Amino acid sequence: MARALSPRRKMLFTAAGWTAALLLFFPILWTFLTSFKTEGEAIALPPSFFFFDWTLENYFEVQERSNYFHHAMNSVIIAFGSTFLGLLIAIPAAWSMAFSPGKGTRGLLMWMLSTKMLPPVGALIPIYLIFRDLGLLDTRTALVVVLMLMNLPIIVWMLYTYFREIPGDILEAARMDGASLRKEITYVLVPMAVPGISSTLLLNVILAWNEAFWTLNLTAVDAAPLSAFIASYSSPEGLFWAKLSAASTLAIAPILVLGWFSQKQLVRGLTFGAVK
Amino acid sequence: MGAITLENVLKTFDDTTVIHGVDLTIDDGAFVVFVGPSGCGKSTLLRLVAGLEDVSGGTIRIDGEDATAVPPAKRGLAMVFQSYALYPHMSVYNNIGFPLKMAGLDRSAIRAKVEAAAATLNLTPYLSRRPGQLSGGQRQRVAIGRAIVREPKAFLFDEPLSNLDAALRGTMRLELSELHQKLATTMIYVTHDQVEAMTMADTIVVLNGGRIEQVGSPLELYRRPANLFVAGFIGSPKMNLVDGDAAQRFGAGTVGVRPEHLRLSNDSGDWQGTVGVAEHLGSDTFLHIEVDGIGKMTARAGGDFEAGHGDRIFLSPQSDQLHRFGADGLALQ
Q1: Are B56 and B12 in contact (CB under 8 A)?
Q2: Distance from CA of A186 to the nearest CA of B (A)
Q3: Is any Cβ of chain A less than 8 angstroms from the Cβ of B226?
Q4: Residues on chain A touching B82 (C-beta within 8 angstroms)
Q5: Contact at 8 Å (CB) between B93 and B112?
Q6: How remote is the C-alpha of B312 from its chain's centroid?
Q7: Would the CB atoms of A192 and B52 count as touching at under 8 Å?
Q8: Hey, which residues does B204 pair with through a beta bridge?
Q9: Residue from the list A176, A187, A188 with its beta carbon closest to the beta carbon of B50
Q10: What is the DSSP letter of A4?
Q11: pTM score, two decimals?
Q12: In 3D, which of B96, B139, B95, B94 has the Cα closest to residue B117?
């Protein structure tokens, strides 16, 4: 039954929604505005909101000092690479958990999730040493592998949830129709799970894109993605808010655009199965 | 080619045994119906034949060859599911063609077979649609089309008509029977609806509690039920079962009389009772009668039989149509 809201309550809820949205968005907006200020204006008190001398100087300087496109390319490779590799492993894993569960499946899922409860720094030294000995420090391969491992539990869990919404009958029908396990997954399961798989992909690309702990600790120059590019503006010569903001804006712009265009898919995927 | 033999087939889930050592021989070309109440194991038995469940013991032979460990894809059987289980992301054409694609046929061969199947099933105008754009009956036909294109050794139907409305169910029942006559391929059909079982089957297998109660032709089961369970399950309205003194008079623990084998009279008879409800169907009248000293009985009379609530009436079982059962529930010869 539809719940009717009185106009006053409706206004109240709308105001609450806008307040929450603005609170969430404000840091991004402030970063964006600061990136167009001079360093002096960036730290001025009281801060000016819109009325300052707009300048692109920070962007030129950032591009001059470091190679944005090199880092952006690293980010793309690491974020998409780790997500695709993760999907490749997680799809069969989630299939077996959703459609052929055993006695230990529930425990296995919880155990996988529990690895996310460990602070990553706890694993830093062993992983650093292993990668050093393998000669993988500051390589994109290392980051693809590490970020894939970090996000794998989330990928498996998300896919597992989506797959469970798919009627087992349909997969059994494919089996009766002569499909091998591989064909059952590629021709029937994956196409049916497209909304779920794409939202998993998007969410994990975003997580990997914004990941800063491993990218900062395992890279220096060659494999450094945009998160390392931002960080390089935050320390050595004191804080340069305007340049840091310009770097941040450049770093989040691609993922913001991607998120904007795929938000419909993302929302659909995140609520997949909630309503039939 | 499609003779199926089950030898001492056993199925357990954890500690629960759902199929207790079933032996069954299904001849090539037969239309066999597994019927029984919910939870009797009929669907499980079908899934064991399909290979979708692994047997816990015993052997399944298809055309004489041991198929117990053969995966479902390799058994050469086709299955139609209760939910139709169509591929929602594929067109009707691709749904029907899917098994052929899996078998590695080339495009032109697939096209020829899909078009032939679609013509048989009146699906030609719908080939480019998705399952979501079809009615229940059309979806069912697509599911059947997907099964027939691959020319399987046997068809397995798992309650295929239970999602359809009554009128469509009647039509599809007829179509399936015609399809069986045309293809002459073995069909195993699972249902809880004994009308479907009676009208379609060559052979009915009545299951109860994971065991076969009786195997026989519809009329055999109707005329000579082997035990009380089959007697009560087959026939609509149900057979009247009478025990106690009234049964002992006939030298049995329980006697069974079908509603149409009770003679009704206003003047005299073996038993007397009061009419509770009279259902006038036009062709028949079903009378639900509270019989003195026995309990509720159902009698079937002609459509013009006049009786109403509260009328007193006499009933007499036709002695040559009486079913006698011993204390163990088995039919007495």
Answers
A1: yes
A2: 12
A3: no
A4: 169
A5: no
A6: 38
A7: no
A8: B33, B216
A9: A176
A10: P
A11: 0.80
A12: B96
Chain A: closest CA distance from residue B221 (Å): 32
Tally the C-alpha atoms within 13 A of residue B258's C-alpha that lie toward its C-beta: 16
Q: How far is B72 from B101, CA to CA, in rounded Å?
A: 17
Nearest to B112 by CA among B131, B93, B86: B93
Cβ-in-10-Å burial (0-12, 13-18, 19+) of A232 comes to middle
Q: What CA–CA distances, in Å, run from A27 to A32, A34, A84, A212, A245? A: 8, 10, 31, 18, 11
Return the SS3 of A105.
helix
Inter-chain touch B87–A175, beta carbons under 8 Å: no
Q: What span, in angstroms and rounded, lies between the C-alpha atoms of B130 and B71?
A: 29
ipTM of this complex: 0.84
Interface residue B89 vs chain A (CB under 8 A): yes
> For testing the chain A interface, which of B81, B148, B190 should be mutated: the one with the most A CBs within 10 Å?
B81
B198-227 burial, b at 16+ Cβ within 10 Å, e below that, comes to bebbebbbbbbebebbbbbebeebbeebbb
Distance CA A192, CA A198 (A): 11
CB atoms B89 and A191 under 8 Å: yes
Letter string b/e over residues B115-129, b meaning 16 or more CB atoms within 10 A of that residue's CB? bebbebbebeebbee
Nearest CA in chain B to A167: B85
Closest residue in B to A177 (Cα–Cα)? B99
Distance from the Cα of A84 to chain B's closest Cα (Å) equals 23
With an 8 Å Cβ cutoff, are B150 and A175 in contact?
Answer: no
Q: Do A172 and B86 touch (CB under 8 A)?
A: no
Q: State whether residue B104 sits within 8 Å of chain A by CB.
A: no
Chain A contacts of B79, Cβ < 8 Å? 172-173, 176
Cβ atoms within 10 Å, residue A196? 24
Contact B87 A170 (CB under 8 A): yes
Task: Tell me the pLDDT of chain B (333 aa) as tens digits.
Answer: 789 999 999 999 888 999 999 999 999 999 999 999 998 999 999 999 999 999 999 999 999 999 999 999 899 999 999 988 999 999 999 999 999 999 999 999 999 999 999 998 889 999 999 998 998 889 989 999 999 998 899 999 999 888 888 888 888 899 899 999 999 999 999 999 888 999 999 999 999 999 999 999 999 999 999 999 999 999 888 999 998 888 888 888 999 999 999 999 888 888 999 999 999 888 999 999 999 988 899 999 988 888 888 899 999 999 889 999 998 889 987
Neighboring chain B residues of A167 at a CB cutoff of 8 Å:
83, 85
Residue in A142, A273, A264 with CA at minimum distance from that of residue A214: A142
Adjacent-strand bridge partners of B280: B285
Distance CA B20, CA B212 (A): 9
Would you tell me which residues 143-162 of chain B have a C-beta closer than 8 angstroms to some C-beta of chain A?
146, 150, 156
Chain centroid, CA A200 distance in Å: 10
A253's tokens: 């712009």
